[in-house]
Structure formats: structure tokens, C-alpha cells
């Protein structure tokens, strides 16, 4: 838990970037206004988290999930954000599935490469063993001929 209330504020750099992206070019925001926006955003996040936590507790869970957040938004009377949030959530889930699929492909390729390397090493070892055995046979034959 945070030791001081200021520890709960969102980082000023993040808030400044969001504000800058939301406003048209040429619009300036004072330091005081950025600070107020950062505090308001922090309060909003804490309130939304608290409401979502209530839904999790009603479900006898300790972990907040996306459904809890969406329900909290409706309870807080921010219904107009629910649709865009659902769309963002779906996009996030698709991205995660894509990342997992590409990671699995990468791991499969690495395993295949390792397997091929191991097969190649075994073949080389077998060839070396065959050569050694042939040399020993030749040496034995030469010794027999000498005697």
C-alpha cells in the first residue's frame, strides 16, 4: 500500500503525454492544470478500482477481472465508456493470442533446430566411431599380415 497520498498519483510524464495527444496542436496546458488532471485521473482510477473490487468481493473473489471493471464503469454511470472498453479489451486479447501463437512457433522452431542439431551430432559421432572401428580393423589386419 502507498505510504503517502502522493504515491498514488499517476506519473506526470504519462499524464502530460496523454493530455498532449488529446488536444489539438498549439494548445498549451499549464503545469497547475496538468497537476490537477493527474490528481483527478488518480482519483478516478482509485474509485474505479474500488467499485470493481466490490464486484469481485460479491463474486467471492480476490482477483479483479475485466468484467468487474466493466460493471464498475456502469455503476459509476460511465456507460458510454463500456463499449470502447470492450473493443479495447477484445483487441488486447487478440494481440495476446497472437503473441502466444508466435512464441509457441518460435519455441517449436527452437526445439526443432535443437533436435536437428542433436541428430547431426549423433550422426557425426556415429561416423567417427565407424571410422575408428575401421582403423582398428585395418591395424589388426596389418598386424596379422606382419606375423
Automatic annotation (TrEMBL):
> What GO molecular functions are on record for this protein?
chromatin DNA binding; protein heterodimerization activity
Where found?
Answer: Nucleus
Q: Where is the Transcription factor CBF/NF-Y/archaeal histone domain?
A: 9-73
Q: Where is the composition biased (Basic and acidic residues)?
A: 91-123
**What are the boundaries of the region Disordered?**
91-147
What are the Acidic residues biased-composition ranges?
Answer: 124-147
Record keyword Acetylation present: yes
What biological-process terms (Gene Ontology) are attached?
DNA damage response; heterochromatin formation; leading strand elongation
InterPro entries in the cross-refs: CBFA_NFYB_domain, DNA_Pol-Epsilon_Subunit, Histone-fold
Question: Main site of residence?
Answer: nucleus
Q: Which UniProt keywords apply?
A: Acetylation, Coiled coil, DNA-binding, Nucleus, Phosphoprotein
Gene Ontology CC: one annotated term: CHRAC
What exactly does this protein do? Accessory component of the DNA polymerase epsilon complex. Participates in DNA repair and in chromosomal DNA replication. Forms a complex with CHRAC1 and binds naked DNA, which is then incorporated into chromatin, aided by the nucleosome-remodeling activity of ISWI/SNF2H and ACF1. Does not enhance nucleosome sliding activity of the ACF-5 ISWI chromatin remodeling complex.
Q: Describe its partners and assembly state.
A: Component of the DNA polymerase epsilon complex consisting of four subunits: the catalytic subunit POLE and the accessory subunits POLE2, POLE3 and POLE4. Interaction with POLE4 is a prerequisite for further binding with POLE and POLE2. Heterodimer with CHRAC1; binds to DNA. Component of the CHRAC ISWI chromatin remodeling complex at least composed of SMARCA5/SNF2H, BAZ1A/ACF1, CHRAC1 and POLE3; the complex preferentially binds DNA through the CHRAC1-POLE3 heterodimer and possesses ATP-dependent nucleosome-remodeling activity.
The entry's protein name is DNA polymerase epsilon subunit 3
Annotated organism of origin? Salvator merianae (Argentine black and white tegu)
Amino acid at each position: 500500500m502507498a505510504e503517502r497520498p502522493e504515491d498514488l498519483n499517476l506519473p506526470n510524464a504519462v499524464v502530460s503525454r496523454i493530455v498532449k495527444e488529446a488536444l489539438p496542436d498549439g494548445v498549451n496546458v499549464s503545469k497547475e492544470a496538468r497537476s490537477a488532471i493527474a490528481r483527478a485521473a488518480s482519483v478516478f482510477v482509485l474509485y474505479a478500482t474500488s467499485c470493481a473490487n466490490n464486484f469481485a468481493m460479491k463474486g467471492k473473489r480476490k482477483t479483479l477481472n475485466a468484467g468487474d471493471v466493466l460493471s464498475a464503469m456502469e455503476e459509476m454511470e460511465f456507460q458510454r465508456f463500456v463499449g470502447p472498453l470492450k473493443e479495447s479489451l477484445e483487441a488486447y486479447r487478440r494481440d495476446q493470442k497472437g503473441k502466444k501463437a508466435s512464441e509457441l512457433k518460435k519455441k517449436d522452431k527452437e526445439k526443432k533446430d535443437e533436435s536437428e542439431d542433436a541428430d547431426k551430432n549423433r550422426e557425426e559421432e556415429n561416423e567417427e566411431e565407424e571410422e575408428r572401428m575401421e582403423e582398428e580393423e585395418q591395424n589388426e589386419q596389418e598386424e596379422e599380415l606382419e606375423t
